[in-house]
Write a structure and sequence with these properties.
The structure holds 2 protein chains of 2 kinds. Chain A is an alpha/beta fold. Chain A has 13 helices and 16 strands. In chain A, strand 15 and strand 16 (401-408) form a beta hairpin. Chain B is built from 3 helices and no strands. Classes of the chains: A alpha/beta, B mainly alpha.
Chain lengths: 410, 103
Amino acid sequence: MPADDIVITGLGIVSPVGGDASSTMKALLCGESGVTLLPEAQRGGTSVWLCAPVDDRALTRVSRRETMRHDRSVHLALQAGREGWQDAGAPQAEPSRVASVIATGMGGLTILLGLYDRYLVRGPISVPAHTITGIMANASAALLAAEIGARAAAVSLASACASGADAIAHALRLFRDDEIDVALAGGTEAIVHPVTLSAFAALRALSRQHDDPSRASRPFDRDRDGFVLGEGAAVLVMERRRHAEARGARIWARVAGAGSTCDGSHLVAPDPTGHWNAEAIGKALRAAQIGPSDVSCVSAHATATVVGDLAEAEALKKAFGPALGGIGVTALKSSFGHMIGASGAVAAAVAAMSVRDRVVPPTRNLDHLDPSIDLDVIREAHRPLPADAAVLVNSAGFGGHNTALVIASS
Amino acid sequence: MARILPERDLMELVREVAEEALDMDLSEASPQTPLRSLGMDSSDQLELVSILEDRLDVCLPDSAFSELETVGGLIAAFARLQAADSAPRADEDSEERPSDARR
């Protein structure tokens, strides 16, 4: 095994279906749903109130002081980051060779929305000192950097729903440039709020299947009608293999490659031909030095919007060609909705557990595969993976951002 | 209109806000206790001040920040503001506050 491989030595997830990585994986394998209805008192007249929230009781690693001081997206990042760091055995490394890359699509949006109500009633005097540090999108990256002693870089990236995958891709570049030996990399998002729900609803992006919440998120299904807004965070500890092996670390998987492109066409709608998404996948496969037929499984972006799923199916067809017939595709958002800037990182963390445990979680709510989508979508509970597996994690975001990651057996 | 509290009650309010907003126990603190010795860094101090301003409906001028070395200094600064605010003013309608620019 090349000593310069980049491996995953720690995982942390907080999601609508589990408070940590293992409970999230277990829930996904059991086909559980984290989708529910926003309590009536919190809806504020919004026309869509389906959501997939994180249970507050999951935030066991966040102090009361941190809860009061920071935005919820930071709470989730601290929870997942601390779990991941502990899972990796808190690696000792030269601080100038450690980075913290925590992405978010929207940053500390809800802390500001909450304060504005107070501002309207009580004026500027009611705005607390933590407001700016609460809103700023880099707060999670900076706080975790301070905690683990990361001095090489601390940065937050924003590429909407591809942010989490882009954080991992960015960390990989820092490794390739020989800037670092250890990185915390992932994404966080917590924007479940009547204003954001209304805003996504205005884009006609959300499912409105309120009558049966657990069945509302229906990626690739004929009857899909949009995504369910979720929240969560996932953070990987990425490490140079020789660094990990020197300290006897347990290795989950490799981050074998990453590739990014931009559709460069529209701020919201994906390129229906999937051309640039396919290019991103091709770049990731080349970086991983594997071909399409070496991929065992695709963890699709699959938000369950009508156009998004179609464009992704086209992209997969273009990227994999005839090899696609032998590749199972899973759509995790069928269980926990769309965690926006966290979703790519959560999918990468789940992929790492998949290749290590050799099992892929199923896609829920797929009753009738859209006849115009020709994919082997995994519905059964435990699709096995070979010992030498590679999972392609696909991510796309508003703005035309496409990022693909290859997570492979170690 | 400012909420007027005697100094003893101000001390109680400071303890309450530090506990609620900063998760800090000030029960053992005396007026002479330096804020930094309680583990309060500059952003904690700003947080405490901003919440006290909200609760008491007064605005601490930037010039007063240099006095906030100790718990007693903090309380004295707010006590002085309250006294100034409760004194009769020529222009009762004036909304102008000395440090509004800071916001």
